[in-house]
Amino acid sequence: xxxxxxxxxxxxxxxxxxxxxxxxxxxxxxxxxxxxxxxxxxxxxxxxxxxxxxxxxxxxxxxxxxxxxxxxxxxxxxxxxxxxxxxxxxxxxxxxxxxxxxxxxxxxxxxxxxxx
Amino acid sequence: xxxxxxxxxxxxxxxxxxxxxxxxxxxxxxxxxxxxxxxxxxxxxxxxxxxxxxxxxxxxxxxxxxxxxxxxxxxxxxxxxxxxxxxxxxxxxxxxxxxxxxxxxxxxxx
Lengths: 116, 110
Prior knowledge:
- The structure holds two protein chains of two kinds.
- Chain A is mainly beta.
- Chain A contains one helix and eleven strands, in the order βββββββββαββ.
- Chain A has one helix at residues 98-103, and strands at residues 5-7, 10-13, 19-24, 31-38, 42-50, 53-57, 64-68, 74-78, 87-94, 106-107, 111-115.
- In chain A, the strands form two sheets. In chain A, strands 2, 4, 5, 6, 9, 10 and 11 form a seven-stranded mixed β-sheet that branches. In chain A, strands 1-3-8-7 form a four-stranded antiparallel β-sheet, with no helix packed on it.
- In chain B, strands 2, 4, 5, 9, 10 and 11 form a six-stranded mixed β-sheet that branches. A five-stranded antiparallel β-sheet of chain B has the order 1-3-8-7-6, with no helix packed on it.
- Chain B is globular.
- Chain B is built from no helices and eleven strands.
- Chains A and B meet through strand 5, helix 1 and strand 10 of A and strand 5, strand 9 and strand 10 of B.
C-alpha cells in the first residue's frame, strides 16, 4: 500500500496570504487528522475528518479550516497567514476511530510552511 | 496549557547504553499513552503504547513504564543504537484526540 502523501512538501508564503495543503490518505482509510508541529509546542492537533465530516477540532482560530472529499483526500486551508503559522503541517490517516484509530494511524511526511 | 510535557528537549547517550526518555501529564483522565519516533523529513511513526491499566509494556529493546500516581511515563531503550537517533514524542489519547508532548531529541553516539 502506498503511504500517506502530502503536497506540496515545501511552501513559502507572505503574511496576509492564504494557503491550501493537501493530504491523500492510505487507500481504504476514512479518517484524516491534521497536526501543526512547531519547535516550542510540539505537535498540536488541528482537526480530524471522517467520511467528509469534521469529527474533532483542536484549539486553533477560525483561520484554520479543512475539508474532506468523497475519496477521503483532505485539504487544509489557512487564511490571512501570520508569521507564527510557520510550521510543519502533518496529516495522519487511519482506518478506525478512538483507540483502534490511533493504533493504526500513519503520518505523512508533512508540508513545511514558511511565512515571511 | 501543555497537558503532556517532555521537559528534556534533548538527550545524548552512548551506543549500547540505556536511553531513558521522560514524559509528564496533567490529566488523570488519559487512559492510553503512546510513543512516536520521528526522523527529519519524515512523519512520526508509532513505536509503543501502554494502557492506563498497566504499568509496563515491553517490545524488544523498547519498554514503556507508567506511574499513574506521579502522572509520569518513561520510555527505555536498551541497548541504544545509532539508528535510534531521532525526536521522540509521547502522546496521550483524550476522547479520540492525540495530545502530544513537545518532543525529546535523542542522539546516540558511538
